[in-house]
Amino acid sequence: MIQTIVFLTPHYLNFASEKALQTLGRDCRTVLIAYHADVLPPVLERNVSQIVRVDADLQRNIRPLLDHDQCRSIISDELRAVQGNTSSLRIFCQEECHVELAAQLREEFGLEGDTQAIVANFRDKVLMKHAVSQKGIRIPEFVPLDHVRLSAEPQAYYAELTARLGLPLVLKPVNAAGSFEVSIIRNEAEFNKAREQVLASPYQFDYEVDEFIDGDMFQCDSFVVDGQIRYCGVLELGCTNFDFVQGKPLSVIPVADPALKATLETFNRDVIAALNFRNGSTHHEVFVDRKRGYPVFLEIAARVPGGIGVPYHEKNSDINLIDANLYLVAGAAALDDIKPNEKNNVVSALLPLRKGRISQLNEPPISSAYDIDWRVAPGMVVDSRSLADTAGILTLYNADPKVLRADFEALQDYVPTQVEVLEPGTA
Question: Which residues cross the membrane (predicted)?
């Protein structure tokens, strides 16, 4: 029986329902480890047995990384409280930057859950590509970035990369998140700009350089129990994460074409099997090559989708993926109550920021009923570096699939904020 669940960071846990948190709280002790500066939503403040604040490293990823030693001490204390019974304690984490730490702590204490070997294939984009390609799954051609050559001989290195991978090139960290520090390189000038960004970065990233895939982008968000996919939400994206950071709304719509949906579901199942993932959620991004018409693997994470993902699936399919994962980790009987019901009448969009001072918020040019949860206001000075930087969340509803599709396409040209470009040094 599970007696204690330790939540590693409040991020993504904030999507849990009060009902799920209360269900767990009746059966076991719940402990949340959070960074000192994390602002917690009331639903967590009300429904967690204990909240422990720790230090964090601010220079290794886009979110503060909780201090390993302090987290280890907390786990050790909780394990002593259950007389060292490792089968009664679980670590819950659905935040990309901390799944490795969660796996390390599990192995240090002999706890059940994802191991470091499993998690590494979902965190390191080079490892994951090697793993899936060995099972015959199509991937973009790529090479790990050679930092020495990038620094010492950029012109020759650029020529070598383009000869091997063509143009454009995609340069990105192998283990960050949210398109942070991603560059699309179309010429040598853009290569030099990306080089300067890499060399000046305060973060300790390794990078890869990928072939650019010309195609439409999709995501498959899954809930897996004992190796079987119980739910797979297949969505078309209006743009890539990189395009969002450049200023386009990141919108999602359910895939309506039965043949395409079946193809993507099969591809997703094969990727999950190739990575030997048994329990939990995955967030899988895939291109459908525009010329050849087949899926090409982009990347996959061993967690629920970020941004609009969890609320979207709850609205469209009646499944809260955080709740489902909480019930799974706790061994709760409520897991049997998770019954997805796809309605396919919802489009959601993460609204982008544009660097500068906001002068006006704009309404979308659509016909469907909608609501916007604005996260910004006129007068605010904003920037756009990753998916964490957003103007708000748009949700629209329509039972007519043709109108829903037309509005989804109209969002591609929607500019949600007007901004005044600031002079350097202006606050």
Answer: none
